[in-house]
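PROTEIN–LIGAND DATA SHEET

This sheet pairs a single protein chain with one bound small molecule, S-adenosylmethionine, given as SMILES. Inputs appear in the order they were entered. The predicted three-dimensional arrangement of chain and ligand is reported afterwards as a token string under its own label.
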Amino acid sequence: MAFTFFFRDRETLGLIEEHVIARLRGRRYMDIWDAGCAHGPEPYSLAILLRENMGEFLFRNVRIYATDINGNFGETIRRGTYPDEQVRRVPADLLRRYFVAADEPRHFVVAEPIRRAVHFSEHDLTSLEPIRDGLALILCKNVLLHLAESQRCDVIKMFHDALAPGGFLAMEQTQEMPEEVEPLFVRVTNRGQLFRREER
Ligand SMILES: C[S@@+](CC[C@H](N)C(=O)[O-])C[C@H]1O[C@@H](n2cnc3c(N)ncnc32)[C@H](O)[C@@H]1O
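PREDICTION REPORTED AS:
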């Protein structure tokens, strides 16, 4: 499983905080797909951001479907326990509120309400099968760079179809939207790779 850590990409989390959360609030259910989630720090970081910004009541409607081609999620995911080097970038106040010390030395456990919002499963993006439709947000970071350009376009088209009208797609800062699929989306900001499906 690829190495990653909590709050790895604060820029993208910042864009979601600034542009996406206010729009998600209006939805009854907020179904989110983290595609290529590795062993969990990314979807859990997103869940913490949403819980912070939405409050306990609205956060109950958030479901994050976290998928990876490598479905060997194992004990780390089942118990939500991570070594301290993977939580080092978590701001201190969030670490205090959303993690507890594990029995194992120098390990932390993600708090139960955050774990409850994230559902892990194995999924290969190149199958071009969406995990569901009507999604409010898709986060896909540091995954598409491994695919050929034509496959990347097919996956992005599949993301488009899986989003609800007005739903968002966030990719890493270095992942440009390929020209072929650019007309499907509206660019939300010039500061990063955040896009929105047209409202209709
Ligand atoms: C570099 S990690 C990125 C993890 C996380 N998104 C982040 O940015 O910190 C890339 C992940 O993509 C997954 N991956 C690679 N090809 C995939 C595919 N075809 N479908 C789904 N996941 C894939 C890998 O297993 C790996 O966990």
